[in-house]
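User: quick one
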Amino acid sequence: MGLVNHLPTRRELLVGSGALFAWSQMPRLARAEGRDPRLLVIVLRGALDGLGAVAPVGDPDWIALRGDRALVADGKTPALPLDAFFALNPAMPNLHRLYKTGKAAIVHATATPYRERSHFDGQDVLESGLTKPGMTSSGWLNRALVALESGGRVDPRGSRALGIGSVTPLVVRGSAPVMTWVPQKLLPASADTQNRLLDLYQHTDPKLATVLQARMKLASLDGAMGTGEAMSDDPTLAPPGIARVRAYFAEAAGTAARYLAKPDGPRVGAMGFVGWDTHIAEGAAAGQLYNLLGALDGAFASIETNMGEAWGETVVAVVTEFGRTARINGTQGTDHGTGTVAFLIGGALSGGRVIADWPGLKSEQLFEDRDLKPTTDLRAVLKGLLRDHLRVDEKVLADAVFPGSADVKAMGGLVG
Amino acid sequence: MSNSAKAEAVLALHRFGMGPRPGSIAAVGTDPRGALIAELDRPLVLSAATNLPTSAKAFRTVADANARRTARAKQAQQQAKKQQMASAPAMSEDQTQAPGQGSEKDAAEMAAKQAAEAVPDPGRPMYLQEAKLRTEAALAAEIGFAERLVWFWSNHFCISANKIQSMSGAYEREAIRANTLGRFVDLLLAVEGHPAMLFYLDNLESMGANSIAGINRNRGLNENIAREIMELHTLGVRTGYTQDDVISFANVMTGWTLVPPGVDPQHGGEFTFNPRLHEPGGQTVLGKRYEQEDAEQGRAVLRDLAANPATATHVATKLARHFVADEPPPALIEPMAKTFRDTEGDLKQVAITMVSSDEAWRGPPSKLKRPSEWVIGMVRATGITVVDPVRYTGGQELLGEALWRPSAPKGYPDDEASWIDGVGRRLDVANNFAERITGTADPQAIIEDVFASEIGADVKQAVGRAESRQQALALLFMSADFQRR
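Assistant: Done. Structure below.
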């Protein structure tokens, strides 16, 4: 529904390119080195199953944990080998290619300091960069820009961030100005949202349940016949088939890349993709998760293409609020867990490896006997990127960007 | 506030008002009936509307634009023709380009069309501006009972902006809003004498067969307004009037028209009684003879229709159906109809009787909110007070309840069966709205602060477990707790 929020806001619609110049967009130290770095953060909302994305096929306890739902190197759809121990979900050939050429790295068994199981709170911690949830008004990426500005390392005019989507992700919100771009096509309510609503109606209002069920049945027939668009007179209201999700991911990510690639465009950006809360019928090797990871893989390709020459100076960090339970639940899904993966891609990356201090999958090795135990603080990874890629001062990172993180050492060697 | 008092306050806001907004539950307090009644004592004017044109002025503005449009089109057409004639000899020598007669005509028509389109239609911005103020009044109202009554009567006496866009908002302000808390007869007279209604129900050209204009032009009567007044606006369908009554009443209404803007630039678009269109002589309507010779004849019939007991029952039933239940209990309708009869149609008293009756509070929340109510409720819950009318009216249209654009004089229906199939579309709208506001709206805070936690445990759980704030908001707005009242 169309409304204008009356609250004052720093966000403004990005119309064409701003009157900003390339040199002013660049961290000064990076510029002295002849670099013009870009950083894009993608938040996967709903908690990605890191084990369903990157499987520890070399772990002796892996098969026992997931049974016939475990990704394996010699399965029906074989997982893509990364090294002797890990294999990538077969839905992600682009990521696999980037990894093989050293332009992607995967961090496994990682997590923010958050140890509870609420999405909202988990996302708050992930994006605010604080150790505790709460309604915070600024994100770590925005504060990193502010810090650069006050340290005189960046021309103030260059401290703009880009937010993609009608909701600017918290990670880029804050006192440094943010430009936003809203995709023309809004994604209709996801199958997951429909399922949850149906469940709610079935408990509270049978009549509404019947109506919603009929709509969902129609949508699924539609998808099977491949005529999703034709059935609706308004393309934004067509049933959300995976083709639409793929198109949306690719369009949104590609647009972000085009803005970041512009000589006079912003240098950092953030966006969110929803749909990762796979409680039921997760389908890692074929199904819901497989489809979503495939759409994400398509977004990676779209970024690489649309970045053009700037790809060589780009890092994309793909993060999620937490992981999922190590074991499959009673409905062939997974519940809220802790340790998960982060994907890092980009031409500036020094990759081709899975970074993990592997905790093991035996019951006693799991966190609370449920989740993959986090052994790498995600903040170490992000601090490493901010320090080595954007050249944010290490002390600023510890005090202002990730407050209270002095004992979390920035991970070195991520960018080449 | 105790839990049961809070629950009753929430019910008051959903059922009779525009839905809870920040602070409204506390404002309703422990006496929701008293709070609803107190709201009816406040003046129901749109103070921000003082800058908006009257319906007559709006009509004149559009008429002016149309006149300019026609003139420009004609001019462009003539010019195009002249150019073609000038270039015709040269073109006839060039065999490959010799245009046929048809394309010359097309070019002239195209030029005319383009010239006409260069004059913007002033009706749409007026419609949007009116929509904005009306919607913001609903967002700003503490409870919104009085605004809901305005909406009710606007739908009862609906016109269509598809037919008369420029006047649609001003009509509601001038005829409906000004009389919503007054007497039904005054509301009826204001509505049926309003140029927008006369235009909408085709009365401008209706003329008596024996009137001066009727004899000269060999044209006649249009029954539309007479039929709709009796069937929809007053007595109700199948209440004993006959086709003869309709014809007689239509004759009575001849001459009720508006001042043509071309004739009188000062008063164009205002109501006027044109005796040249009026069927002379007396008429018998519902067994009563009306001998008046001018607009008084119509007013007399309207006064009698307003006072007819069938009207009291019709109005009471429709009000009760709108606010309380698709099949409202007779024990609620009867006292409302009695109040209507006893007070000569004092609409404020009828509304007070409704909210004072235990019957109005007893039933479970079985009504499915109409899209307009649901959307306003959603926006109110987030504390937003300003709307973008283009998006807002677009959304309303998407949900099947385009503002001031019902497909028939019956207005939009009020029952669950008519709206429940649209719930899927509501989900798309809720999802998009949630996406838009999730940066500033916290679903938990809405549940706790706006709804005072008066929402089902299932919904709280679903909201708490949602994968994102956006999903949580969509589930909250789509819940039965939020859609039913």
